[in-house]
Protein backbone atom coordinates (compact mmCIF):
# COMPACT_ATOMS: atom_id res chain seq x y z
CA UNK A 1 0.00 0.00 0.00
CA UNK A 2 1.30 3.44 -0.93
CA UNK A 3 2.13 5.73 1.98
CA UNK A 4 1.77 9.53 1.99
CA UNK A 5 4.29 12.17 3.06
CA UNK A 6 3.10 15.74 3.71
CA UNK A 7 5.80 18.42 3.39
CA UNK A 8 4.86 21.55 5.35
CA UNK A 9 6.99 24.67 5.10
CA UNK A 10 7.62 28.09 3.61
CA UNK A 11 9.10 29.38 0.35
CA UNK A 12 11.97 26.90 0.47
CA UNK A 13 9.44 24.07 0.45
CA UNK A 14 7.35 25.91 -2.16
CA UNK A 15 10.38 26.22 -4.45
CA UNK A 16 10.91 29.98 -4.61
CA UNK A 17 14.25 30.64 -6.34
CA UNK A 18 16.67 33.26 -4.98
CA UNK A 19 15.31 36.80 -5.24
CA UNK A 20 17.49 38.92 -7.53
CA UNK A 21 15.64 42.20 -7.12
CA UNK A 22 12.75 43.53 -5.08
CA UNK A 23 9.38 43.45 -6.74
CA UNK A 24 10.26 40.83 -9.32
CA UNK A 25 7.55 38.68 -10.85
CA UNK A 26 6.47 35.46 -9.15
CA UNK A 27 8.75 32.56 -9.96
CA UNK A 28 8.85 28.92 -8.86
CA UNK A 29 11.22 26.07 -9.57
CA UNK A 30 9.68 23.17 -11.47
CA UNK A 31 8.34 20.13 -9.65
CA UNK A 32 11.29 17.89 -10.50
CA UNK A 33 13.75 20.46 -9.12
CA UNK A 34 12.00 21.31 -5.86
CA UNK A 35 13.23 19.25 -2.93
CA UNK A 36 9.83 17.59 -2.26
CA UNK A 37 9.83 16.47 -5.90
CA UNK A 38 13.35 15.11 -5.59
CA UNK A 39 12.34 13.22 -2.45
CA UNK A 40 9.19 11.94 -4.17
CA UNK A 41 11.19 10.51 -7.06
CA UNK A 42 13.48 8.67 -4.65
CA UNK A 43 10.67 7.40 -2.42
CA UNK A 44 8.45 6.23 -5.30
CA UNK A 45 6.55 4.00 -5.73
CA UNK A 46 6.18 3.31 -2.01
CA UNK A 47 5.38 6.92 -1.15
CA UNK A 48 3.28 9.78 -2.51
CA UNK A 49 4.44 13.29 -1.58
CA UNK A 50 2.12 16.26 -0.96
CA UNK A 51 3.66 19.75 -1.08
CA UNK A 52 2.38 22.37 1.38
CA UNK A 53 4.88 25.22 1.10
CA UNK A 54 3.67 28.80 1.48
CA UNK A 55 6.11 31.67 0.82
CA UNK A 56 6.30 33.88 3.91
CA UNK A 57 4.92 31.28 6.30
CA UNK A 58 6.12 31.54 9.90
CA UNK A 59 5.91 29.04 12.72
CA UNK A 60 3.80 31.32 14.87
CA UNK A 61 3.43 34.92 13.71
CA UNK A 62 0.57 36.56 11.79
CA UNK A 63 2.52 38.81 9.44
CA UNK A 64 1.47 42.50 9.52
CA UNK A 65 2.67 42.89 5.92
CA UNK A 66 1.92 39.55 4.25
CA UNK A 67 -1.19 38.64 6.22
CA UNK A 68 -2.47 36.75 9.24
CA UNK A 69 -2.60 33.54 7.20
CA UNK A 70 1.19 33.32 7.38
CA UNK A 71 0.82 31.90 10.92
CA UNK A 72 1.86 28.27 10.53
CA UNK A 73 -0.25 27.10 13.45
CA UNK A 74 -3.47 27.69 11.54
CA UNK A 75 -1.86 26.55 8.31
CA UNK A 76 -0.83 23.21 9.77
CA UNK A 77 -4.33 22.52 11.06
CA UNK A 78 -5.74 23.30 7.61
CA UNK A 79 -3.14 21.12 5.87
CA UNK A 80 -3.70 18.17 8.18
CA UNK A 81 -7.45 18.40 7.63
CA UNK A 82 -7.11 18.91 3.85
CA UNK A 83 -4.89 15.93 3.11
CA UNK A 84 -4.80 12.40 4.29
CA UNK A 85 -4.54 9.94 5.56
CA UNK A 86 -0.83 10.69 5.86
CA UNK A 87 1.92 8.46 7.21
CA UNK A 88 4.65 11.07 7.71
CA UNK A 89 4.96 14.83 8.03
CA UNK A 90 7.97 17.07 7.51
CA UNK A 91 8.05 20.53 9.06
CA UNK A 92 10.69 23.02 7.91
CA UNK A 93 9.97 26.49 9.28
CA UNK A 94 11.75 29.20 11.23
CA UNK A 95 13.49 31.25 8.55
CA UNK A 96 10.72 33.83 8.28
CA UNK A 97 10.44 33.98 12.08
CA UNK A 98 13.93 35.53 12.10
CA UNK A 99 12.66 38.60 10.22
CA UNK A 100 13.48 41.81 12.03
CA UNK A 101 9.85 42.86 12.37
CA UNK A 102 9.01 39.92 14.63
CA UNK A 103 11.78 40.62 17.15
CA UNK A 104 12.06 36.94 18.03
CA UNK A 105 15.12 35.25 19.49
CA UNK A 106 15.96 31.61 18.87
CA UNK A 107 14.19 30.22 21.98
CA UNK A 108 11.01 32.08 20.99
CA UNK A 109 11.19 30.63 17.49
CA UNK A 110 11.77 27.15 18.88
CA UNK A 111 8.73 27.60 21.12
CA UNK A 112 6.60 28.35 18.08
CA UNK A 113 7.83 25.21 16.37
CA UNK A 114 7.04 23.29 19.56
CA UNK A 115 3.44 24.41 19.12
CA UNK A 116 3.42 22.94 15.61
CA UNK A 117 4.71 19.62 16.90
CA UNK A 118 2.07 19.65 19.62
CA UNK A 119 -0.66 20.26 17.02
CA UNK A 120 0.64 17.41 14.86
CA UNK A 121 0.99 15.08 17.84
CA UNK A 122 -2.44 15.91 19.25
CA UNK A 123 -4.85 12.96 19.60
CA UNK A 124 -7.24 14.71 17.20
CA UNK A 125 -4.70 14.84 14.37
CA UNK A 126 -3.04 11.51 15.07
CA UNK A 127 -6.38 9.71 15.28
CA UNK A 128 -7.59 11.40 12.10
CA UNK A 129 -4.72 9.89 10.12
CA UNK A 130 -4.35 6.63 11.99
CA UNK A 131 -1.02 7.78 13.40
CA UNK A 132 1.91 9.39 11.58
CA UNK A 133 5.56 10.15 12.23
CA UNK A 134 7.15 13.62 12.09
CA UNK A 135 10.48 14.74 10.69
CA UNK A 136 11.51 18.17 11.99
CA UNK A 137 13.90 19.93 9.62
CA UNK A 138 15.96 22.87 10.84
CA UNK A 139 16.43 25.30 7.93
CA UNK A 140 19.97 26.34 6.99
CA UNK A 141 21.27 29.57 8.56
CA UNK A 142 20.44 32.76 6.69
CA UNK A 143 22.92 35.26 5.30
CA UNK A 144 22.22 38.95 5.72
CA UNK A 145 22.92 39.97 2.15
CA UNK A 146 21.17 40.58 -1.13
CA UNK A 147 18.06 42.60 -2.05
CA UNK A 148 15.99 41.58 1.02
CA UNK A 149 18.75 41.79 3.63
CA UNK A 150 17.06 44.70 5.42
CA UNK A 151 14.17 42.40 6.36
CA UNK A 152 16.55 40.03 8.14
CA UNK A 153 18.80 42.35 10.16
CA UNK A 154 20.23 40.26 13.01
CA UNK A 155 18.75 37.07 11.60
CA UNK A 156 21.97 35.18 10.97
CA UNK A 157 22.98 35.06 14.62
CA UNK A 158 19.47 33.97 15.58
CA UNK A 159 19.37 31.24 12.95
CA UNK A 160 22.74 29.86 14.06
CA UNK A 161 21.24 29.05 17.46
CA UNK A 162 18.31 27.09 16.06
CA UNK A 163 19.85 23.68 15.24
CA UNK A 164 20.68 22.71 18.82
CA UNK A 165 17.33 23.97 20.11
CA UNK A 166 15.32 22.17 17.45
CA UNK A 167 17.30 18.96 17.87
CA UNK A 168 16.46 18.92 21.57
CA UNK A 169 12.84 19.78 20.77
CA UNK A 170 12.55 16.92 18.27
CA UNK A 171 13.93 14.49 20.82
CA UNK A 172 11.53 15.72 23.49
CA UNK A 173 8.53 15.40 21.14
CA UNK A 174 9.49 12.04 19.68
CA UNK A 175 10.16 13.39 16.19
CA UNK A 176 12.93 12.65 13.74
CA UNK A 177 15.39 15.47 13.11
CA UNK A 178 17.40 16.73 10.15
CA UNK A 179 19.70 19.76 10.34
CA UNK A 180 19.52 21.02 6.77
CA UNK A 181 22.50 23.28 7.43
CA UNK A 182 24.74 20.21 7.52
CA UNK A 183 23.63 19.29 4.01
CA UNK A 184 23.01 22.57 2.17
CA UNK A 185 23.51 26.33 2.38
CA UNK A 186 21.32 29.22 1.29
CA UNK A 187 22.08 31.07 -1.92
CA UNK A 188 24.48 34.01 -1.60
CA UNK A 189 22.24 35.82 -4.09
CA UNK A 190 19.63 36.65 -1.45
CA UNK A 191 20.79 34.85 1.69
CA UNK A 192 17.45 33.08 2.20
CA UNK A 193 16.42 30.84 -0.67
CA UNK A 194 17.92 27.72 -2.19
CA UNK A 195 19.61 27.13 -5.52
CA UNK A 196 18.53 24.08 -7.56
CA UNK A 197 21.58 22.11 -6.43
CA UNK A 198 20.62 22.67 -2.79
CA UNK A 199 17.08 21.47 -3.48
CA UNK A 200 18.53 18.29 -4.90
CA UNK A 201 20.78 17.65 -1.92
CA UNK A 202 18.00 18.39 0.55
CA UNK A 203 15.54 16.15 -1.28
CA UNK A 204 17.99 13.27 -1.11
CA UNK A 205 18.62 13.86 2.61
CA UNK A 206 14.91 14.04 3.36
CA UNK A 207 14.18 10.83 1.46
CA UNK A 208 16.82 9.04 3.49
CA UNK A 209 15.53 10.50 6.76
CA UNK A 210 11.92 9.53 5.96
CA UNK A 211 12.98 5.95 5.33
CA UNK A 212 14.54 5.91 8.81
CA UNK A 213 11.41 7.19 10.58
UniProtKB/TrEMBL annotation:
Q: Which UniProt keywords apply?
A: Hydrolase
* Domain of life where this protein originates: Bacteria
Q: Where is the SGNH hydrolase-type esterase domain?
A: 7-199
Keyword flag Chaperone: no
Which InterPro entries does the UniProt record give?
SGNH_hydro, SGNH_hydro_sf
From the record, what ranges are coiled-coil? Answer: none
MF terms from GO for this chain are: hydrolase activity
Query: In its UniProt entry, what is this protein called?
Result: SGNH/GDSL hydrolase family protein
Q: What is the lineage of its organism?
A: Bacteria, Pseudomonadati, Pseudomonadota, Alphaproteobacteria, Rhodobacterales
Amino acid sequence: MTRTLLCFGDSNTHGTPPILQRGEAYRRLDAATRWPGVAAALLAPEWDVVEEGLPGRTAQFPDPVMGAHMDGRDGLKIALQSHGPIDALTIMLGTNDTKTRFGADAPRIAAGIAALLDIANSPEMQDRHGGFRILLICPPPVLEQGPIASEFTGARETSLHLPSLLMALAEARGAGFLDAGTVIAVSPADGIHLEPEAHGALGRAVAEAVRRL
